[in-house]
Amino acid sequence: MFLNPQKAESAALSPWSTHALTSLVMFAAFLDSSLLVIAFPSIRRSFASVSTAELSWILNAYSIIFGALLVPSGRLADQFGRKRMFLAGVTIFTLASALCGLAPSAGALIAARALQAVGAAMLMPTSLALVLAAFPIEKRAIAVTLWGAVGGLAAALGPSAGAFLIQSLGWRSAFYINLPIGLLAFVLGRKLLRESRDVSARALPDFVGVVLLIAAVGLVTLGIVASEAWGWLDWHTAGFALTGLALLLIFVRRSLRVTSPVLDLTLFADKNYRFANLATLLFGIAFFAMFLGNVLFLTQIWHYSTFKAGLAILPAPLTVIPVAIISGRVASRYGHRVLVIPGGTLFALAGVSLLLRAGTTPSYVSVWLPSSLLVGLGVGLCLPVLNSAAVHGLAPSRFAVGSAVNQSIRALGAVLGVALAIALLGRDPRTADLPTFQHVFALFVCGGFLTSAASVGIRTEPAVKARAVSQVEVVNS
């Protein structure tokens, strides 16, 4: 006997329940990234014989695998079911978190982080696709911005909670905290989430393209990270970087020719989508370079403990949360550009403040706090809003793959940002001086201003205007 469609619909989760459930896992994934940056100095002390450049692959291996698998994961979710992919991602992410906590060596930790990235890549596009499918178009800007604000909440708790955990229980606890969250999300998701898929999706994504993308990003990153040891003009550095770029060009050409490409380049036919993703890449580079650079500055130059550094960073992400919530409503009414342009500028001014005023003597209230508040404002106006802008005009059948491309580009920004920060700080940041850290500050100044410049091209139609145009078209027809 078949279930009545109306009863099935009423039995399904409400949009906000779906939002809460998927956001729970996203909270764990974002919290994990936040915790790991604050844990980086402690991990470095545990593996003292391993160079900082090599240890940076704990961050970079995750970002590379995550970025490369986001798009095919979104495609697979569209084809085989978003609920199914979501639950599989929860399982892999939780298991890998346990392996990270148990890792006996730096190599084992990097490998477990790569597996963790596989799970996270399965989660990110599917959770956002489930959210987008649950809400009507006029409420999607608010829903997606709040979904992005979950990252702000995780970042707010990450530095202080992570620093407390690490100081009390060690850095391994930063991974073990994912276990109860993952178990709860799996149980609730299995019982409550409703399956959805794109019925038009047929072919599997191009496996060769996935390999090409991972190799390309990995080689470019290796060249940047190792540039300090080899030199920017050394043939090793140039060879890795140029080979990576060549593989990236091959990947793009292949994506244009195969029947089921990893990256659907037709998405970029839309001008708004192009500019939103360009701004996402630029802000991702600046944001992740800033995050890692600030933690190392506080612990190396101002000699803060891990816990004290976590507390010092806290005002910025705490500012993100209310700003992101308000941003969703503003974007829904006036579009996204009016938020991202000032957001990138405020982020850049935070870097200018540190560049001009931060010295070797700690000065938290007069120097660090004002800059942190500007960072919070800038991030709240950019990160979640850019997520929403990128998927604003997509058809429902392309939610997963479209959002996956955007998240993949942000992950690429994370890889490049971390790699550039490590390269600018040198092989061993413990020997870095103030002028060296000023190079990192200058990097996120440039990234902020470039984000604002790229955002000029974002022209999303406010939901209020979209509804009015739709009503006129209905009347005219």
Classify the secondary structure makeup into a structural class.
mainly alpha
Mean pLDDT: 80
Unreliable spans are: 1-12, 466-477
Q: Tell me about the largest β-sheet.
A: none
Count of distinct strands: 0
Overview of the structural elements:
With 477 residues, the chain is mainly alpha-helical. It is 81% helix and 0% strand. The chain has 20 helices and no strands. The chain has helices at residues 5-11, 15-46, 52-55, 57-80, 82-102, 106-134, 137-169, 173-176, 178-192, 207-225, 227-230, 235-257, 271-300, 306-313, 315-334, 337-357, 364-391, 399-425, 434-455, 463-476. The protein is globular.
Considering the chains and any ligands shown, give keywords for the structure.
477 residues, mainly alpha, Growth Hormone, Chain: A, 2 domains, 20 helices, 81% helix, globular, disordered N terminus, disordered C terminus
Outline:
The protein is mainly alpha-helical.
Which helices and strands, and how do they pair?
Blueprint lengths: L4 H7 L3 H32 L5 H4 L1 H24 L1 H21 L3 H29 L2 H33 L3 H4 L1 H15 L14 H19 L1 H4 L4 H23 L13 H30 L5 H8 L1 H20 L2 H21 L6 H28 L7 H27 L8 H22 L7 H14 L1
Helix pairs in contact: 2-6, 2-7, 2-9, 4-5, 4-6, 4-10, 4-18, 5-6, 5-9, 6-18, 7-14, 7-15, 7-17, 7-20, 10-12, 10-18, 13-14, 13-17, 13-18, 13-19, 15-17, 16-17, 16-19, 18-19
